[in-house]
UniProtKB/TrEMBL annotation:
Converts seryl-tRNA(Sec) to selenocysteinyl-tRNA(Sec) required for selenoprotein biosynthesis. Residues 5-44 form the L-seryl-tRNA selenium transferase N-terminal domain. Keywords: Cytoplasm, Protein biosynthesis, Pyridoxal phosphate, Selenium, Transferase. It catalyses: L-seryl-tRNA(Sec) + selenophosphate + H(+) = L-selenocysteinyl-tRNA(Sec) + phosphate. Belongs to the SelA family. Its main location: cytoplasm. It comes from Mannheimia varigena USDA-ARS-USMARC-1296. Pathway: Aminoacyl-tRNA biosynthesis; selenocysteinyl-tRNA(Sec) biosynthesis; selenocysteinyl-tRNA(Sec) from L-seryl-tRNA(Sec) (bacterial route): step 1/1. This is L-seryl-tRNA(Sec) selenium transferase.
Length: 460
């Protein structure tokens, strides 16, 4: 064993090799030394465990090739591009939707340059970073002002912390939602230091339930959009309009967490209806919150809209400073909202709407091209078919509301061959992510953006 140890090169000797000099130039001296040490440590371990030199020590070129690969891997970004063929268009695990070109260029502009984020150029004085969004929200929803934070979960937390700390908030038992990723209304209430007052039952809540729960200590009446489930059968809930009327009687604000929300009528695009922000504003709701990266089609953000006085209070709360967005997000959000000033072009310009509204004819065409591309890559163990499928909007939008779609399905005699294929798909330069169901592997065409790049990758 001692003899084997003696065959290990010293770091100094290694660093004198021309390959090492090259690597040092590309990756820095210190990183080369560190990674070389790690490789030598591995070699020592192998000598102890197996009484043998690893191959990469026996061959100097192999050693430097391995060192180069390790350094290259360290320099590469691990959040990689993937192709989403899961059938869930806004897949949270895959980063939700893509931004519009206008949003992307607004964001990169803000990255590369100084921008007038909190500066009023005309007046030559300081302004507020949410002003651009606030003005657009006024035009689009009729609300007086807006406050922008990191995401809608943060928006809910900020509304509760600002107006209900140490006080009671009345919510229907039918609306105590849990969204993926441990966002539960009762937990957020506890975090904001307010007391949740549950009223009604799971399936039925009446106006009198809210009325009976109002005390001296009530901060506001709250509605939460049940975005990821549907209570069916013997049900009843109280509308925003009714709650607003009750709130007026007792001088209490009404607050709505819309979840996704929408600024355009989904029905007119033949998509499942989603409550519209402007409808809630028109109904007299005092504060409405919704996400920037669900159906809105923009960057991750939470938008709160409402009257000037209440929005101003939100802006003054110390948590707002903690939860505020940066120039990149605010630029992309502004660009996204500007699309809504030209509603007929939304399906062309917002990738999310484009994907959701694709016709079955165009999906059929894509399915045939994908099947074709795959058939050239897969051997005879695999059977390819085009089958109808049900896609989902995703991101909390009702999973029970599905969109007609098409998928290329792959089946094989042996399940192990299918598992091997799923693994192989993950080794592509941009991994292909699909879904197992009914002993087949499903590749849904509705959720995949950048389809031409997918075909191009399969060709290579
Ligand atoms: C999705 C959702 C949230 C959380 O929104 P994020 O922007 O993902 O933080 C909160 N409430 C409801 C009702 C939701 O659907």
């Amino acid at each position: 064993m001692q003899q084997l140890f003696r065959q290990l090169p010293s770091i100094d000797a290694l660093l004198k090799q021309p390959q090492a000099v090259e690597l040092c130039q590309k990756f820095t001296h210190s990183s080369v030394v560190e990674q070389a040490r790690i490789l030598l440590e591995q070699a020592r371990k192998q000598i102890i465990e197996h009484q043998a030199l690893p191959d990469f020590i026996a061959d100097e070129n192999a050693f430097f090739a391995m060192l180069g690969e390790k350094l290259q891997a360290l320099s590469e970004v691990k959040i990689r591009t993937v192709f989403n063929l899961t059938g869930t268009v806004l897949h949270t695990n895959l980063g939700r939707g893509l931004w519009s070109e206008k949003a992307i260029s607004a964001a990169t502009n803000a990255m590369r340059h100084n921008v007038a984020l909190e500066f009023d150029i005309d007046e030559g004085k300081r302004s507020h970073r949410d002003n651009y969004i606030s003005e657009l929200i006024q035009q689009l929803t009729g609300a007086e002002a807006a406050c922008v934070v990191n995401n809608n979960a943060a928006a809910v937390l900020l509304m509760l912390a600002t107006f209900a700390q140490g006080k009671e908030v009345i919510v229907s038992r039918g609306e105590l939602v849990e969204i993926g990723g441990a966002f539960r209304i009762p937990d957020i209430m506890a975090q904001a230091g307010c007391k949740l007052v549950e009223v009604g039952t799971t399936n039925r809540t009446h106006l009198k339930d809210y009325r009976n729960a109002i005390t001296e200590n009530t901060a506001f009446l709250m509605k939460v959009h049940t975005s990821n489930y549907h209570i069916q059968g013997f049900t009843s809930s109280v509308s925003e309009e009714e709650l607003v009327a009750l709130g007026k009687e007792y001088n209490l604000p009404v607050v709505t967490d819309l979840g996704s929300g929408s600024l355009t009528d989904m029905k007119s695009l033949n998509l499942p209806a989603e409550p519209m922000v402007q409808q809630k504003v028109a109904a007299g709701v005092d504060l409405v919150s919704f996400s920037g990266d669900k159906l809105l089609g923009g960057p991750q953000a939470g938008i709160i809209v409402g009257g000037k006085a209440m929005i101003e209070q939100l802006q003054q709360h110390p948590l707002k400073r903690v939860l505020r967005c940066d120039k990149v997000i605010l630029s992309a959000l502004e660009a996204t909202l500007r699309h809504y000033l030209f509603p007929e072009k939304l399906t062309d310009e917002l990738p999310t709407f484009h994907l959701l509204t694709q016709s079955l004819d165009s999906l059929q065409h894509k399915a045939e091209r994908l099947k074709n591309g795959l058939s050239k890559r897969l051997d005879s163990r695999y059977i390819l078919q085009i089958e109808p499928n049900l896609a989902q909007i995703g991101s909390g939008a009702l999973p029970s509301e599905t969109l007609p779609s098409l998928a290329v399905t792959i089946s094989a005699e042996k399940q192990s061959d299918l598992l091997a294929l799923e693994k192989a798909f993950k080794t592509y330069p941009s991994p292909i992510i699909g879904r197992f169901a009914q002993q087949k592997f499903w590749l849904d065409l509705r959720s995949v953006a950048e389809f031409e790049k997918l075909i191009e990758m399969l060709r290579r």
